[in-house]
Amino acid sequence: MTESSSPAPDPSPTGSYAPDLYNADLAPVPPERRDWSWVNMATVWMGMVHNIVAYEAASGLMALGFSAWQCLEIVAVAYLILFLAMWFNARAGTRYGIPFCVLIRSAFGPFGAQLPVVLRGFCAIFWFSVQSYAAAQAVDAIFSTLNAGWASLQAPFLGMQLRMWLAMAAIWALHGWIASHGVHRIRNFELVAGPLVILVGLLATMWGLHVGHGLGPLFAQPSHLHGAEFWSRFAMGVTGMIGMWATFAVNIPDLSRFVRSERDQVVGQAIGLPVTALVFTPMGIITTSATVILFGHPIWNPVELLVALGHPVVTVLGGATLVLATLSVNVVANIMPAAYDLVNLMPRRLDFNRASRLVLVLGVFFMPWLWFNEAASIYRALDLIGGLLGPVTGIMLADFYVVRRQVLDVPDLYRHQGRYAGRKGWGLPGLGAFAAGGLVASAGHILPGLAGLNAVAWFVGVAVGAGAYLALARRQPVPADDTAEALSRA
């Protein structure tokens, strides 16, 4: 089937569409409205890859004993794997114009799909909250530089000082303003934000090269890992890097549904994901190398670096860049998927704008200022949830490419009766495979003797989820989508 002939139902609801499975935001994007080019896809990824967590990721790898060059090797391998996973998982979104929360009904059934949707939504809202708090710290640094009286706003409330509450309010308001303009305006924002953050990163890199008279001491640091220990930690590093984006590998159809062609989504993701990551990572290492020369120790937190430099103009411009970088990743990687997930839960009550505002409210209730003090336990919990989403990726790939043979009867995805209904709305092969994959991928967190699985948890989850789904689908046959029938019903 060629892309131009891909089936897409009339976006207007019909009497046969279940009202709890359909609204305008969940409907397939018609071909004439799929207007994102490869440039849009690339700039969206540029804006997402450049965030504070990704900037600091190299420090975690070097803390494990890797050299700077080995860090780049890990980043290259991890992002190449991510690119391949997202390339294949994005195809259904590009072909049919449907979001993740609708596509997943094919394997899990309309009711069973809510389980992976809720898990993905939880991760998205949590990461929105954490990233926003990091940006609020940058706002605090800016206001402290511009107004000496800002630091006096220290009245505590619910474990946080008044000035940080005000900084958070500013960040939340900026997120709300951007998200309220809809998906296509978000695309235009990323068209500016992604390249601008790259430009500022290049300026910081030039500064680092000047201070370090070259790549700097961190690039001269040798590797402390050899033999089996090296390969074990290499696998752990790759899995950790993938873990930052494993949730987005699941809901990449939320973006690819707006792309005009398969070629555009592939080229855009190739430029925006692995290529940009390989450019951005050495930027962070070079800039941090300069801090070793200036301060005698590495400063990986960019907000701390701005404060340590003590130049008002640098603090204000650098802080504004960090805020822009956070907005660019949060709006697309966290608010958008979480909003779609909430709309999927309550399509009769929520549209995209209302759901995005609800994400902002729920993000406050996650109280990120308290989570920062318990980082170790929180990241373990997120690793566990991320491991559970690995099997979802495997199930989606197995279902679309092997069971469905890349053909979907799209209208049936919005009905309780039909080929995707499963058993009373529950897709037992998908649910069984999810349970099996999640159990195996998470076993290392439960049984100390299997702790080695944690280094490859995402890979194990994908493999077990896909294998179990195919096995269960054969034992309890999943109705295949006949091409001719699907075309005639679309």
Give your account of this protein's structure:
It is a single chain. The protein is mostly helical and 490 residues long. The protein has 21 helices and 2 strands. The chain has helices at 38-49, 52-63, 68-96, 100-103, 105-112, 114-146, 162-179, 182-212, 217-220, 227-243, 246-251, 253-256, 262-295, 302-309, 312-345, 352-365, 368-371, 375-403, 428-446, 457-475, 483-489, and strands spanning 156-157, 160-161. Strands 1-2 form a two-stranded antiparallel sheet. Helix 6 (114-146) packs antiparallel against helix 15. The longest helix is centred in the middle third of the chain and has 34 residues, at 262-295. It is globular, with a radius of gyration of 23 Å. The model is unreliable at 1-14 and 483-490 (pLDDT under 50).
Summarize the structure.
The protein has 21 helices and two strands. With 490 residues, the chain is mostly helical. The model is unreliable at 1-14 and 483-490 (pLDDT under 50).
